[in-house]
Amino acid sequence: MNLKARVGARIGELRQAKGLTQQELAARATIDAATLSKIESGKRNITLSTLNDLLSALEVSPRHFFASEAFSPQPTDPAGSGSIIDSEQLQFRETATGLSVQFPCGTHDATVLFPGMKRAAVAEAILALRDGLHRAELPVPGRQENQQVLMSQAIADSFLKIAYAYPATNPSDIWRYIIYRAFVDPLNHPAANARKDFQQSWKRTSGWALEQILDRHYGAFLAAESVSITSFRSNAERAPLLKLMGLAGKVPADKADQFILGRIKEDPVPLGVLHVKASLAERRTDDIPASRAIKEAGYLSIFVTMDTKDTPSPQPRNRGEYGVPGPNASQKRLDVELDGNFTAVFSFNANTVESPVVTPSGCRIVTVNLANPKDEFSAFILAKWRQVRQGRR
User: What is the Cα Rg of the chain in Å?
Assistant: First the structure.
């Protein structure tokens, strides 16, 4: 974070500590509220005269103002990172109505507002993400865990902290505008990795993180019905289950992201496969041949996604990629509603338009959230489990 951004963030921090709005502080310092807003967001330089007026209005000394960790050297490890979460790439401003998240979006300075959200809750989640990423990326002698596994755990931990704190908020918006943006912000990685391509790291690890989120959110609820969502990290671990399902040689092992398993006594009973993709752009079409083979064998083949997609703008909207039903429906929608290439699609984006109750293929796109594991996703799986158990009697 450059000095201009640090000064602005520090002014905003002290203003909030005083319980003042931007309008109230601007009035006290006899400056324009719009000017103060730009200063706090790091978009405008501040003169010494204006800084002196603001410090007087805040009733703090220059010594106290610059004593903040915001003016310390850039941290190189979690212990030195303090509570700084604002940077040149990402800023959080608490407003009277919620939390304003600001970041570069294409050629725009974008802003997304999260109604009712508090900065403190988001800061806790981002600091947890930062700590997890440092643990994953810094070399530790004798450590056995895979780096990508640790990074995906950090993503899942951070995301669930916010999603569970604000269950009415669109999960896909939290994912795209807070967690993703925090992940690709160099501030949250060890300084030694500052030149890494964090977007590529996100592509490799975010899918695994979404798998963990599904397991952790639905795990206990499904376990009470003797059902589990099971992940494997290697094709060798997946191969025996595909063989048990009669799909060896028909479905590549890497096309089964997670298995849905029932259990009768100690015996696993395969119910189907989950194809887990944060974005539809992540090899969706590559999963279709495998999905067809899984369905033909009588198993569930469910596509689960955050369906994240927007267009760069000053106020981007995470509309997703499925578009709307009707004569101009996208091919991605037709894959489900017309061709039935997946048994069902479950999207964690509240902006995804659901399928009509009746579709030509009988397969639908349905939206879910993280408010309660007893939802349409778990109900869909348990309906299959009841059918399988009845067939075994």
Answer: 24
Q: What does pTM read for this prediction?
A: 0.78
Question: At CB < 8 A and 24+ separation, what contacts does 81-85 make?
Answer: 81/127, 81/130, 81/187, 83/123, 83/127, 84/1, 84/9, 84/187, 85/122, 85/123, 85/126, 85/127, 85/182, 85/187
**Burial level of 239, CB count in 10 A (0-12/13-18/19+)?**
middle
- Going along the chain from its start, the domains and CATH numbers come out as 1-71 (1.10.260.40), 73-196 (no CATH), 207-391 (no CATH)
Pull the structure tokens for residue 39: 């200063």
- pLDDT tens digits for range 335-353: 999 999 999 999 999 999 9
CB 150 within 8 A of CB 330: no
Q: Model confidence over 109-160: pLDDT tens digits?
A: 999 999 999 999 999 999 999 999 988 877 665 555 678 888 999 999 999 9
Q: What angle separates helix 48-58 from helix 22-29, to the nearest 10 degrees?
A: 110
DSSP state of 12: H
Residue 253 and residue 244 in contact, taking contact as beta carbons nearer than 8 Å = no
- Closest by CA to 212, choosing from 245, 163, 167, is 163
Query: What does the DSSP assignment read for 311-380?
Result: --SSS-----S---SSTT--HHHHHHHTT--SSEEEE--TTSPPPPSS-SSS--EEE--SS-SSSHHHHH
Q: State the DSSP H helix or E strand holding residue 145, giving kind and residue range, or none if neither.
A: none
**Is 325:363 a contact under the CB 8 Å cutoff?**
no
Rounded CA gap, 90 and 119, in Å?
13
User: What's the pLDDT at 265?
Assistant: 86
Q: How confident is the model at residue 4 (pLDDT cuts 50, 70, 90)?
A: confident
Cα separations in angstroms, 211 against 130, 208, 258, 282, 321: 20, 5, 7, 14, 20
Query: Helix 147-165 and helix 119-137: axis angle, to 10°?
Result: 170
Token pair for 122: 């988001």
Supply 35's token pair. Answer: 């000017």
Please give the mean pLDDT across all residues of the chain.
90
Quick one: pLDDT at residue 140? 61
Assess contact for 15 and 22: CB atoms under 8 A.
Answer: yes
